[in-house]
Design brief:
With 352 residues, this protein is an alpha/beta fold. 46% of the residues lie in helices and 14% in strands. The protein has 14 helices and 7 strands.
């Protein structure tokens, strides 16, 4: 193509001979991997890993935001790029919890936050120079739903990076539903498993993944499957390190901050919620964990009927993703009920 349209100073310009959406000043030897965090796919673990190892990664010429080095970023540490994309399209965060966490009351507040992030991120890139830059955040997937918003994010990043690759982890859906219900119960929600399952038909993660890929033809796109059989050594962080071209050796693992509640704990929390004693019960359960209680208690799993319903609902979209990204596989995710070595069912546990 003879040229590519870009935004420069708020207007579209052309970069002669470019095959990528590029801003003036973007360098080919500066590249970025942008992890689009789907809910319940280890995003908190990845973000914590990046923050904990920012200095160690810097020594390997891998650059990531570090709240300790840039306290002025503060509340928009992981939401900055998404906030920029929303603000440049005159769209306000719809989730009031997100707005509250970011200190946003009006669109002007959001626009000010976006401009502050853009300015500080530009200074960060200029100071670090060439190398690989890594960004991770759930707000990108949760809030950037339309093509215009997705393109706005890429246009913002294109001013810094000649090459951009978007990375997504997709979790096996029966495991995702069970984990989502456990998390909701631990947060005091009364949502049912059936409601979470029904939401799968309303908000297809698979369809959104394809939308991101389709909207960014000038950027790379990598889909990874969060399953023991698909990740490097059944370990999320080992797999993530491989994707960013480094080793976990010499780096620290973060403490897993997301609590997965066991079956008896969920029953206790549910009963406590009904009598208005949820907060006290949860506090006692957290203390009990310090003494090893419930350590061997069974994790929450879907019933066979619920699991089959989820697999049936997700089968068409999973097959579309398999054909598009993993044509060498016979199924996107292995059947957990089928032995893989002739003797034992396949393990679903993924280390985070």
């Amino acid at each position: 193509m003879p040229g590519a349209a870009i935004w420069a100073g708020g207007r579209l310009t052309m970069v002669p001979g470019s095959d990528n959406l590029r801003y003036d000043g973007a360098e080919a030897d500066r590249r970025a991997i942008i992890h689009i965090g789907l809910p319940k796919t280890g995003t908190t673990t990845i973000q914590s890993f990046l923050a904990l190892n920012a200095d160690g990664l810097k020594a390997r010429n891998i650059h990531t935001q570090n709240p300790a080095d840039h306290p002025e970023w503060g509340r928009n540490f992981h939401a900055g790029a998404a906030t920029v994309a929303l603000s440049r399209n005159k769209v306000l965060y719809q989730n009031h919890l997100v707005r509250r966490s970011l200190g946003i009351e009006t669109f002007d507040d959001q626009a000010e936050l976006a401009e502050s992030f853009a300015k500080n991120y530009a200074a960060f890139v200029k100071q670090r120079g060439t190398g690989l830059y890594v960004m991770s955040g759930e707000p990108m997937f949760n809030t950037l739903k339309s093509p215009d918003l997705i393109r706005a994010l890429d246009e913002f990043l294109a001013q810094f990076f000649g090459k951009r690759t978007y990375l997504v982890y997709l979790r096996e859906q029966t495991d995702w539903v069970a984990s989502s219900f456990s998390q909701a119960a631990g947060a005091g929600s009364d949502i049912s498993v059936e409601k979470i399952i029904s939401n799968l038909t309303r908000e297809s993660q698979s369809a959104q993944i394809q939308k991101w890929d389709d909207m960014l033809p000038d950027a790379g796109f990598t889909l990874r499957l969060m399953h023991a059989d698909r990740l490097k050594d059944a370990d999320l962080l080992l797999d993530f390190c491989a994707e960013i071209g480094t080793s976990l050796d010499g780096l620290e693992r973060p403490t897993n901050r997301n609590i997965g509640w066991s079956v008896p704990e969920i029953r206790i929390l549910s009963a406590a919620r009904k009598i208005g004693a949820f907060a006290s019960a949860r506090s006692l359960l957290v203390r009990a964990r310090n003494y090893g209680l419930f350590r061997k208690a069974p994790k929450y799993r879907l019933t066979a009927q619920q699991a089959q319903k989820v697999r049936t609902l997700c089968a068409p979209s999973n097959e579309t993703l398999r054909q598009r990204y993993f044509p060498h596989l016979t199924a996107l995710f292995p059947d957990p009920n089928q032995p893989q070595d002739g003797t034992q069912p396949y393990p679903q546990e993924v280390s985070t």
